[in-house]
Recover the amino acids of this structure.
């Protein structure tokens, strides 16, 4: 960690939506009178029936109820499209950059976005989808993914996107979990020169699910797919026949806009539910202020729409602001390690937003891949998903930004809908590695982890919680409000618990120290250790498994699995490979263990609880400080684990 500060330049501050004085004044107003502040800023979107109530939120355990703008009605897709299609029909809404650099990029205007979204909406209606129905999207990063999201919003259906890297089993669980009526997929997803067979995966997912789920298939590569008449529908054929206008449905501010499954510390992923009104206000406002977005800027967020970052900062935030947003189908290293910068040059990108893991990977390839491109269009750089180490921050600042672009390190979560801790580039002096200060309306608190007491000294270290609510906050776990209350509001009464640890320095800057629960962060993606464990024990040779994270140079954290085999099963290299492959197919490539250690036994307390603290230490190659091991049922298992540890510095 470095305490060097980088103040905004006077020039940047002068043209920014917020300079330091504006930030201070707006922040103070937002927390002293949230009702008035959000009442005013809610007007940034168009309401069909304006709200008269702004905020109605309760965190009493057993009775957590969060409502914003509750009597207002609106349509999210009309906000993201129609008002801009009326004002600036020819403005580019989406720039699509395909996986293959030789395939031409496409510029989709707001007028075309309206037509295409309407066609998709009418096709969905034709399949019987209506208000409140769930639609799962399992798509490549193609414009149809945005059309599908906005089409659901247009007719009041609730979308749930499943990242195209997830396996058929994971997809199936999510389709069943939200009881979807339709799944929208494509024949194949080109990525990094390879093709993922999305339709084939969907076929497998639908084998063990609810009958009656319809499958709408978008043509991307034209790759052959099997076809089941009556279940499978050809999107391109239906869209060609569909009307180019669909009337937007009038929705309540609190009607769910989407469900997004995310990993937690226990059990299977939970469906995070976001609202229509509050979510859109928050996504749009954070997009404008955090990235200092101005009209006619080209904004590029490199995330996939399968993650929350893609929801808020590829689609909803930028389009609500009438922005030009870039959608990239590929990966940073294809066809070579210069692809990001080639795309920045080609489309004259002004704001660029990516994950530290991508920067670390590219940093290792050498500066020549960056400096050969003209990056003078860049005005601002952003990061998200995990803490950024000072080396990567400095490289981003010096080599990519040429020392002229402010960096916004944005801390937030699937649950928060948008940025909660972030610099505002014209207002906040940045410190490499710190997400700095709260966004408007956000009240972070640092609690002592065991007592739950709030630490009021400015310099503090503990768990990060939030006091009170903000409009983009998740409203519930799909179908399980109890789980919502238990996960986020039971450990520390009266607060929203983030699951992250943090340090607040003497200047009041926040430094995220990582998860304090059994969630690991692999390449900026959240993975529940329990999910990987349950995949491992589902293999016939595995008796028991325990999974922890360990420091990884590129991924941030790697997945370290301790596996106890069934009696009589031989621990071979072949089996190790087989188990890696097994987890890939059970969950997806992102869950593949980096290291598997054969464990004759796992360290347990006498009551049978696995002592993960010890397993984490061994995985970190830091077993000198194992702490108290006196409660172990059989201390000798630890010696074996240390002796055969896989991560040796
Ligand atoms: C948006 C997103 C959330 C978890 C979060 C934290 C980590 C995200 C971070 C960060 C340090 C940042 N995280 N941004 N840690 N600095 N700027 O990533 O959502 O996938 O739900 O992950 O990611 O641990 O709790 P999600």
């Amino acid at each position: 960690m470095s305490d060097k500060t980088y103040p905004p330049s006077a020039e940047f501050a002068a043209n920014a939506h917020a300079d330091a004085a504006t930030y201070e004044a707006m922040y103070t107003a937002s927390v002293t009178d949230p009702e008035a502040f959000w009442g005013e800023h809610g007007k940034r979107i168009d309401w069909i029936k304006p709200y008269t109530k702004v905020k109605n939120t309760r965190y009493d355990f057993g009775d957590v109820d969060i409502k914003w703008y509750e009597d207002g009605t609106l349509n999210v897709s009309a906000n993201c499209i129609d008002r801009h299609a009326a004002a600036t029909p020819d403005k580019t809404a989406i720039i699509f950059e395909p996986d293959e650099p030789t395939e031409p990029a496409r510029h989709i205007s707001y007028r075309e976005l309206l037509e295409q979204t309407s066609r998709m909406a009418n096709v969905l209606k034709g399949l019987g989808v209506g208000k409140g129905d769930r639609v799962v999207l399992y798509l490549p990063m193609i414009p149809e993914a945005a059309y599908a999201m906005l089409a659901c919003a247009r007719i009041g259906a609730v979308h749930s996107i499943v990242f195209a890297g997830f396996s058929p089993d994971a997809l199936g669980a999510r389709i069943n979990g939200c009881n979807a009526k339709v799944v929208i997929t494509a024949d194949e997803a080109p990525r990094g020169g390879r093709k993922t067979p999305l339709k084939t995966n969907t076929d497998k997912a639908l084998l063990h699910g609810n009958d009656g789920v319809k499958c709408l298939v978008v043509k991307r590569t034209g790759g052959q797919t099997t076809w089941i008449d009556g279940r499978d529908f050809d999107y391109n054929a239906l869209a060609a026949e569909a009307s180019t206008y669909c009337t937007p449905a009038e929705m309540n501010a609190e009607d769910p806009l989407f469900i997004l499954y995310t990993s937690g510390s226990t059990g299977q992923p939970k469906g995070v539910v976001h609202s229509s009104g509050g979510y859109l206000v928050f996504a749009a406002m954070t997009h404008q202020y955090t990235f200092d977005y101005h009209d006619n800027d080209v904004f590029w967020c490199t995330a996939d729409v399968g993650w929350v970052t893609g929801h808020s900062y590829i689609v909803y935030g930028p389009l609500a602001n009438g922005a030009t947003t870039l959608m990239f189908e590929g990966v940073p290293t294809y066809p070579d390690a210069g692809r990001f910068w080639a795309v920045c040059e080609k489309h004259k990108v002004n704001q660029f937003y990516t994950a530290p893991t991508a920067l670390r990977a590219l940093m290792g390839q050498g500066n020549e891949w960056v400096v050969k491109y003209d990056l003078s269009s860049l005005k601002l750089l952003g990061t998200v998903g995990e803490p950024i180490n000072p080396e990567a921050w400095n490289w981003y600042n010096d080599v990519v930004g040429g020392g002229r672009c402010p960096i916004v390190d944005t801390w937030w979560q699937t649950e928060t809908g948008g940025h909660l801790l972030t610099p505002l580039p014209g207002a906040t002096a940045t410190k490499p590695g710190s997400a700095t200060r709260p966004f408007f309306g956000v009240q972070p608190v640092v609690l002592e982890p065991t007592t739950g007491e709030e630490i009021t000294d400015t310099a503090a270290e503990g768990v990060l919680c939030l006091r009170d609510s903000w409009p983009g906050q998740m409203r519930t776990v799909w179908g399980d409000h109890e789980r919502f209350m238990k996960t986020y509001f039971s450990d520390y009464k009266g607060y929203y618990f983030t699951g992250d640890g943090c340090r607040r320095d003497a200047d009041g800057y926040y430094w995220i120290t990582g998860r304090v629960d059994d969630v690991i962060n692999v390449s900026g993606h959240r993975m529940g250790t329990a999910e990987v464990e349950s995949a491992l024990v589902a293999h016939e040779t595995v008796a028991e498994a325990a999974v922890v994270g360990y420091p990884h140079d590129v991924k941030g954290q790697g997945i370290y699995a301790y596996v106890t085999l069934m009696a009589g099963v031989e621990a071979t290299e072949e089996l190790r490979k087989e188990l890696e492959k097994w987890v890939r197919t059970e969950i997806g490539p992102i869950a593949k263990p980096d290291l598997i250690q054969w464990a004759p036994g796992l360290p347990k307390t006498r009551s049978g609880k696995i002592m993960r603290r010890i397993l984490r230490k061994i995985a970190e190659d830091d077993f000198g400080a194992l702490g108290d091991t006196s409660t172990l049922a059989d201390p000798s298992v630890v010696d074996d684990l240390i002796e055969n540890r896989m991560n040796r510095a």
